[in-house]
Structures
1.
Amino acid sequence: MPIKPQILKGTRDLLPPAMILRHHVIDTLEAVFERFGFEPLETPAMEYAATLEGKLGEEERLMYRFLDAGERMVALRYDLTVPLARVIAMHQHELTMPFKRYQIAPVWRAEKPQKGRYREFWQCDADIVGTKSMVADAECIALMNTGLRELGFSSFKTLINNRKLLVALAEYAGVDRGLAVRVYRAVDKLEKIGPENVREEMLEYGITPEAAGRVLDLVQTEGTSRELLERFQRAFAGQPAGLQGVRELQEILDNLEAMEISDRFYAVDLSLARGLDYYTGPVYETIVEEPKIGSLTGGGRYDELLGLFTGTPLPMTGTSFGLERIVDVLQEMHGGGLAGTTSEVMVTVFSPELLAKSLRLAGHLRLEGVHTEVYYDAGDSLGKQLKYASRKRVPFAVIMGPDEAAAGKITVRDMASGDQRTLSETEAAGIFRAWVERRGTMSVPVVVE
Amino acid sequence: MPIKPQILKGTRDLLPPAMILRHHVIDTLEAVFERFGFEPLETPAMEYAATLEGKLGEEERLMYRFLDAGERMVALRYDLTVPLARVIAMHQHELTMPFKRYQIAPVWRAEKPQKGRYREFWQCDADIVGTKSMVADAECIALMNTGLRELGFSSFKTLINNRKLLVALAEYAGVDRGLAVRVYRAVDKLEKIGPENVREEMLEYGITPEAAGRVLDLVQTEGTSRELLERFQRAFAGQPAGLQGVRELQEILDNLEAMEISDRFYAVDLSLARGLDYYTGPVYETIVEEPKIGSLTGGGRYDELLGLFTGTPLPMTGTSFGLERIVDVLQEMHGGGLAGTTSEVMVTVFSPELLAKSLRLAGHLRLEGVHTEVYYDAGDSLGKQLKYASRKRVPFAVIMGPDEAAAGKITVRDMASGDQRTLSETEAAGIFRAWVERRGTMSVPVVVE
């Protein structure tokens, strides 16, 4: 009896049109990562559960854990950051520090599946290990900027904050040390729920109305990034960690200026906290404003995580692109114009006698670098063959009939317009070569521009 | 207490030098796949266990199976072929047939780990669904040929056989139908264990000495591929399936000739069986002769697999590159000459005052497409900075000291030779651009050619 073919909820098959766009995004980001001097690293999907646990907070209950055949408790990786820390702990002395790596790979979380949320999804991370220099943090922000621009986004802003300022903010406002985390969990929602609800949340946790007022007052200060930092510097006078946090952000701004990143792309924002427990310094997140789609990338500094493995902390900072979201957004933005196939030319087969000529021609086109298919069933009518190319949205078909064969020519048909021209093989190769050259220059893979 | 950082046996961390070579192999094969008109497809790592089971024979006991949080019995994919069949069964009517897909992705098997054998390893498959045409099988062989040549292999041979001939061989030799599988399991080892051991193995299974003699006689026939097929045609006269198998191989040879694949790269070999149960037609395997490293790719036709899902078979044929083995072999062939980093230039930082100039320069180099690092700690001596570049094997360092800054120039140091030249930024960009252009033209990624 046949087995019913089915797939687990929260997992997906990515058919070619989806994969073409996805490859484009991954290739673009890989190229940007390497241009910034990040190197590729890969870690196993499966690790000892004990390696992955105890780093991420209560979200860890979503980890896929099971006993393997050797009765070891193993888990599928939940993110790419904890495995990186494990690699550093094991290979610290083989690696030249500072070490810059990127990894683009799937992770698994037993989330409740919903639109845009999957149980198996890809992360796309770049991290710098072994330096406290704010050049590294600025580079992560520049990297996000370059990556998003190369993907075709032009209107976005990176919000920048520092966990040290959030600690100082609580102290400045006179909030009990034990409640500091409540302050930044609450202000993190400012943009989403508004100041009144943030105030309410703080009061619920026992923060006094005066303290809540001082928090909201400072968080809602208006001004340029430089002006905000001056205000925070005055507010945190006498708090060494807070002042250190302000200096770090000043250095980041200096570095971004030197890197010639326009300040329309970033802004200091004291309300940004980010979710992960392990951040210790600068944090940042990029919000795309046009189209309004929220956060696409984010990251921060986490100087304590490695200490969980080695007992000795080593500074780390890094950023992550939301690959699934980026792909979904580009899909929505470009819709039907996206390429439906990687194939560029389909060579038809006029008759079984002319099959060899079609195969030879296909070989020549492939040597030119053209993505070439040959129609497989020599007995089918030309109409049926062209219909295949059309359904698949292959941009060109080539016809090599008895007339063409006798004249040493081929007929090239533009499948979109239906225009046909009979050309020498050399002339046709020129057309296709121009097509091949354009392939890499489009900001998204489209059929016709 | 710190957690001991460790990794599961049979899994690996791939540090940057290993990843650079691996990316090169994957990029090369992807480009070849697309040139042959194969499109990318991706399936989840995790599937219902029932989907994957019952297709591969007793090897299936190596599958990683476990209950997920919803008490579903799930498994990590064991290969890429069974998931492909499941995709076809589910999406047959959305896909234009024939459908050509490639997938390069990890699979998991709880094998006993040993040199070159891993529990998590990558497969690299290309398959054609929905045609019985021998053009498809020939294309798979041409694909393996092109792929290996582009990876830099020049001395290899694809052995070609047909499962139909192996069935006919048993009948021709007078072997009981029930023992036919023993015949081809035995002759498959001919190259490895020699004719006397093959004979012994057949006798052990109750095949008569006469039958074993006839088997060995036909299998050891010498001659060109065409001559062998003529001999088999005579031997299998009266066996329609056997004759059909011979005709299929003749067509494959015709097609390979038309594709201008030199016959020094392939040969019919009646002893080739291949391991998987599901093959039904042509099978092939490529043996690299120089260096002597055995099989790197293989594949075949499996027209019945899809029927296990849908009840209705659909023809499928395909090939698989042994990615892990290819990478290991290239590593051995090129050894120390391989690139150790993706970075091409490291910009030093002469002093904290000159940091901004170095950052600006790095930005310009990145715009040119140069893979550029900046040294992070402005306070470190130039010697320490150059040592970092040297340990990491970054090919060039750039120095921007006060003299250079005043003159609007930069000093470029070739890290291998130690040669230094002071140039304008435009002149330097020209040198780096030439380096960037060479990047894609090397058959393996090396530091210096």
Note: DSSP finds 16 helices and 16 strands in chain A.
2.
Amino acid sequence: MEILSENTCFGGVQGVYKHSSDACLCDMTFAVYMPPQARAQKVPVLWFLSGLTCTHDNAMTKAGAQAWAAKYGVALVFPDTSPRGDDVANDEAYDLGQGAGFYVDAVQNPWAPHFNMWTYVTEELPKLVAAEFDIIEENQGITGHSMGGHGALTIAMSLPDRYKSVSAFAPIANPTASDWGRKQLGAYMGADEAAWAAHDASLLMADRGFHSPVLIDQGTADNFYDLLRPQALADAITQRKQAATFRMQSGYDHSYFFIQSFMQDHVKFHAELLK
Amino acid sequence: MEILSENTCFGGVQGVYKHSSDACLCDMTFAVYMPPQARAQKVPVLWFLSGLTCTHDNAMTKAGAQAWAAKYGVALVFPDTSPRGDDVANDEAYDLGQGAGFYVDAVQNPWAPHFNMWTYVTEELPKLVAAEFDIIEENQGITGHSMGGHGALTIAMSLPDRYKSVSAFAPIANPTASDWGRKQLGAYMGADEAAWAAHDASLLMADRGFHSPVLIDQGTADNFYDLLRPQALADAITQRKQAATFRMQSGYDHSYFFIQSFMQDHVKFHAELLK
């Protein structure tokens, strides 16, 4: 692992790191924020998965999460959203290929060799982070925005022993029924829609739910509301009687101005479940 | 004035606006954050002047100021750092020309027609902001980072009746004795160094000071420490017995990770003086 940068921030360290990924067969960059508490003891960790077009950098610089991670004593990990590089497949559309990994393992060409973001985020990167940083492996939570909210919810519900807490900001809630999902799941995973169900938060919620309360924030003025399909997730939560706080935030859109407005609530929510 | 974007943020509105500037003879873009309190009453305003290479966007997205502006009920204004455009003079160096206005009025060619950031920030934009937004003109404070800290300090000390409060993050504190200053003041204002003194925070501090306490934060690991010359400002403050809090922040560098770490302190400092 190579250190690309480290900056003091709220008494802790915001770092950016690069490593050679076996899952994605390319160099991958990620960011970790270690709060000041980590100098004296190991700390819980909150994963933040980002949305379409983002790298590790967007949330690191624009989500305002470090202030609250420092206050509540939680580490943050910001993975990239896809494999990267000139020899990695790509597409001209912003919502397929690089920057749009969708947190699945691809089985279709040209994506299959590199696009293994499920394995990367759930196996390879957690091992690296646990080896390199003073985090408590038993105390992990996961959140994310948009495509990253989709990733956070599907990963947490699929690996409930790993994650003690999950939340999401404006997640892609029902990708098997949305143009933000059908296109990508078809490209990466193939035409067999049965395989897609494991990557649909609303279907997973209906099928199994999560072992602790779930926090969802969704802006009412979200410019991608119809693609996100929050109603499908709300339906699944209420049908299942899943413990949850599902907040429709009046006037907020899909931007980081929305995310930062509620970041304190999310970090505090995770910190309390990760104690 | 044209609205380029408006996003709900911490219950208020983060907007980006464009107007035709008489001072700079070009279109200028700026950002304003109006806190939720502004829906019921006029609010004080805090100006944030940015550093070299920045536009209105950097601090708006990376300084984490909106959280505290909303908490303390203060509007924020983020001006651009220079005139812009294909027909505006420029230089290949990052520290001269577009993105490097230095908050002075140029009298030398090729800069003179457009590079009038002193007039823009102290006259034209304040009038526009007062006309278009529900701010209390009598309750204005000013802060900034690096070149913008230089701007904030020199403007506040030159117009003490206008500004009730001033602070700075890692300001260019003594430009008449630094390569961050001599080059630009010479280019914009000409070789007569006597004229430069009105744009040197340390000289102004020694000469006149400010009518209320001044807050300065400076990182000890600042990668531009030698160019900023904080010792000159500290000397002037202590020689003059100026009421001030000058904080050397251990381990912090020149980045927005530094700025955001202490933004709450600055917004609160201004809000209390602007009551």
Note: The beta strands of chain B are 2-9, 12-21, 26-34, 43-49, 75-78, 135-144, 163-169, 214-219, 244-249.
